[in-house]
Amino acid sequence: LSCFVFVCVCVSQLFDRVREDNPDFHQKIIPISSELTQPGLAISPEDVQTLTSCINIVFHCAATIRFDEPLKHALQLNVMATQQLLSLAQQMQQLQAFIHISTAYANCNRRHIDEVIYPLPVEPKKLIDSLEWMDDSMVRDITPHLIGDRPNTYTYTKALAECVVQQESGRLNMAIIRPSIVGASWQEPFPGWIDNFNGPSGVFIAAGKGILRTMRASNDAVADLIPVDVVINLTLAAGWYTAVHRPKSALVYNCTTGGINPFHWGEIEHHVMSTFKRNPLEQAFRRPNANITSSYLIYQYWILVSHKFPALLYDLFLRLSGQKPQMMRIFNRLHKAIGLLEYFSSQDWEWNSDNINMLMNQLSAEDRRTFNFDVRQLNWPEYIENYCIGTKKYVLNEDMSDIPAARQHLRKLRNIRYTFNTVLLVFIWRVFIARSQMARNIWYFVVSLCYKFLSYFRASSTLTQ
Ligand SMILES: *[C@@H]1O[C@H](CO)[C@@H](O)[C@H](O)[C@H]1NC(C)=O
Ligand SMILES: *[C@@H]1O[C@H](CO)[C@@H](O)[C@H](O)[C@H]1NC(C)=O
Ligand SMILES: CC(=O)N[C@H]1CO[C@H](CO)[C@@H](O)[C@@H]1O
């Protein structure tokens, strides 16, 4: 993993700005090889020595964010690794603060979420011990009972990790950050930076490519996206506060936008569609046009008409032209992915924010600017537009100069759709309706009218020539 991080530092555009400002910045970084699933995190004795003698602040943000990770693996990565890092932190002589990154949805089984750590019915250590001897299929069978009213193993194990952190809070100086749905950057290093398909990014891309045409979500539910640079700035500021002011218990910071600057799924849909119509992605499957609905029946209808039917046709076309059909497979994967998000896009939550406000007041005016995390200034339409363009530029690596060609492609798709609709209409008419005498009369009337119109048009155009 550390190797990978290092390669990223060297090539990613993310670091262009810091590379320009400070060309030798990488000399300040000491990569350390580690493996979260191994005992002692598989850190070499020399590295342990370095860490325990010179670390001041630990920011713990390693976790699996796959919602459907098998429980045992999720426990290993999110809970046991946290435990191991905490015991390493106990040995760090210079440690001032331990900042644990959690998620705002760790307690999503509640509607109103305060900035406190909620107790769980099970002791994390006991759970880990008891799962130890079970095989994977057994764990799979009891997983639904364990996670209870939480939607997935991710939120469950993140809640367990918070409990583990709390158990150590007597001995270490700690804070917990709870970001909601983390999205592309707002300002730093530049607007719209994003490099993965996780969460909303994948949905935006699928919608921009014209693959995703419908999704189950509530138009008026708050879409609690939070820009990644806000999370980072808040985390750094919380590190400072925890180290300097040493609060008596571990403080929890909710890092969300819903309460203060709400934006809804319906609005997101509108802005994503309008951005991708103005700045289309290359080689779209269909024109970007998505409808979100909270009704199960309407959703199933659109799935059939806008997803499965076109996929079937396209696969037929691929098969006829001697290629391998693949569209249905893509759609099945897409449905699985959006199914996992449904829980979060169909309801909203309220988070309490006293600690954030407190932190903001504690910062000096200059620090408040440097470590800005005030989401009241966030202009949503502009943010969503930069986000979508960011997915085009940095995730899909598409060139902005190819936009005219992409627009041309969309026009072609529109013409194909018009032609297809016309052919379908004629077909339905001929096969189902034109059987009765009256329908046939109407049909001939329309056809002859068209014919007359065409010949009139041809005559007049020959005249003008
Ligand atoms: C979405 O809804 C609009 C208006 O309600 C409709 O015109 C459009 O065809 C719908 N598109 C899809 C893909 O569902
Ligand atoms: C976060 O802090 C950096 C560094 O001062 C700043 O450039 C950036 O604008 C801040 N992010 C936001 C969202 O304000
Ligand atoms: C940083 C941040 O957005 N904090 C939010 C936490 O939740 C409350 C209540 O929903 C909001 O008012 C805060 O803005």
From TrEMBL:
It holds the Pfam family Sterile. Its main location: membrane. Keywords: Lipid biosynthesis, Lipid metabolism, Membrane, NADP, Oxidoreductase, Peroxisome, Signal, Transmembrane, Transmembrane helix. GO terms for biological process: long-chain fatty-acyl-CoA metabolic process; wax biosynthetic process. It is found in: Peroxisome membrane. The chain crosses the membrane at residues 418-436. GO terms for cellular component: peroxisomal membrane. It is a single-pass membrane protein. Catalyzes the reduction of fatty acyl-CoA to fatty alcohols. This is Fatty acyl-CoA reductase. It comes from Carassius auratus (Goldfish). The lineage of its organism: Eukaryota, Metazoa, Chordata, Craniata, Vertebrata. The gene is LOC113057017.
